[in-house]
Write a structure and sequence with these properties.
Elements (H helix, E strand, L loop, with lengths): L3 E4 L5 H12 L3 E6 L6 H6 L4 E5 L5 H15 L4 E4 L5 E2 L7 H29 L2 E6 L12 H21 L4 E8 L6 H4 L1 E2 L26 H13 L6 E4 L1 H19 L2 H4 L6
Parallel strand pairs: 1-2, 1-4, 2-3, 4-6, 5-8, 6-7, 7-9
Helix pairs in contact: 1-7, 3-4, 4-5
Keywords: Coiled coil, Oxidoreductase
Protein name: Short-chain dehydrogenase
Pfam families: adh_short (PF00106)
Length: 272
């Protein structure tokens, strides 16, 4: 039985491949991106299956308009994939105000706005899945990538509460948390101009990753996302990649150990 998907950020990378593979198996896709002409070939190849609209997820009014139009045109949408996002490498002090605004508006606020916009439609349907692209970087942080990590930690916190709010309506949520995937993401990411104080900093990532550091395969991540979209009761979070599993579980163990070490001291703030 074919399903209907709504996907943001479909111009390249995982969003593009996800769109292509869903169309190949016979599903319908409402694909959104900032430059719709990039999907012209797919529109010609899959008439009646592919619905395309321009969407910048940093534009709240446009999100509401496009979501309403998509549900009206498709009749029903089974899976909403919030995939649009980007990164900027550089120490926090090196980032511009525009860098901060752009990342937060797209990766965090845009994701929240999309979830809010689709919820009334999914609630009326009585079911649906919201699949939010997160990252192992939603559990741990890398110097030189603090802004991207901030956006993903924020997404994780929002969905932790949001999932319980919408579950009674038959709406499920899942956070997709890949490791370092071989995608165009790193080539497309911005690079802040290095300040002299940070030029020789040994811990600052500038996004110059080797192929060995990109341990995860884009196609396998996409196939796992499609499998998750077909699940009747998907998990709240899905780690993808051995690197993601190892780094996230290690980070969680360290934070738990730090919290447990403060057990006795925490009591100093208890009311009498």
């Amino acid at each position: 039985m074919s399903r209907t998907w709504f996907i943001t950020g479909t111009s390249s990378g995982m969003g593009r491949e996800l769109t292509e593979r869903l169309l190949e198996r016979g599903d319908r896709v409402a694909a959104t991106l900032r430059r719709p002409d990039r999907l012209s070939e797919l529109v010609t190849r899959y008439p009646g299956q592919l619905w395309v609209r321009e969407l910048d997820v940093a534009n709240n009014a446009q999100i509401v308009e496009v979501v309403d139009e998509a549900f009206a045109a498709m009749g029903r949408i089974d899976v909403v994939v919030s995939n649009a996002g980007y990164g900027v490498f550089g120490a926090a002090e090196e980032l511009t105000d525009d860098d901060v605004t752009g990342i937060i508006d797209t990766n965090l606020t845009g994701s929240i706005r999309l979830a809010r916009a689709v919820t009334p439609h999914l609630r009326r349907q009585g079911s649906g899945l919201i699949m939010q692209m997160s990252s192992m970087g939603g559990h741990l942080s890398f110097p030189g990538f603090a802004l991207y990590n901030s956006s993903k930690w924020g997404v994780e916190g929002f969905f932790e509460a949001f999932a319980d709010e919408v579950q009674p309506f038959g709406i499920r949520t899942i956070l997709i948390e890949p490791g370092v995937v071989r995608t165009p993401f790193f080539d497309a990411a911005g690079r802040a101009d290095a300040l002299p104080a940070y030029e020789n900093h040994p811990g600052i990532s500038r996004g110059d990753l080797s192929s060995d550091e990109m341990r995860d395969d884009q196609t396998k991540v996409v196939l796992a996302m499609i499998e998750a979209g077909d699940m009747a009761d998907p998990p709240r979070r899905m780690l993808l990649g051995t690197d993601a599993y190892e780094l996230v579980t290690d980070a969680l163990r360290r934070r738990l150990a730090e919290a447990e070490a403060q057990r006795e001291h925490a009591a100093v703030a208890d009311a009498d």
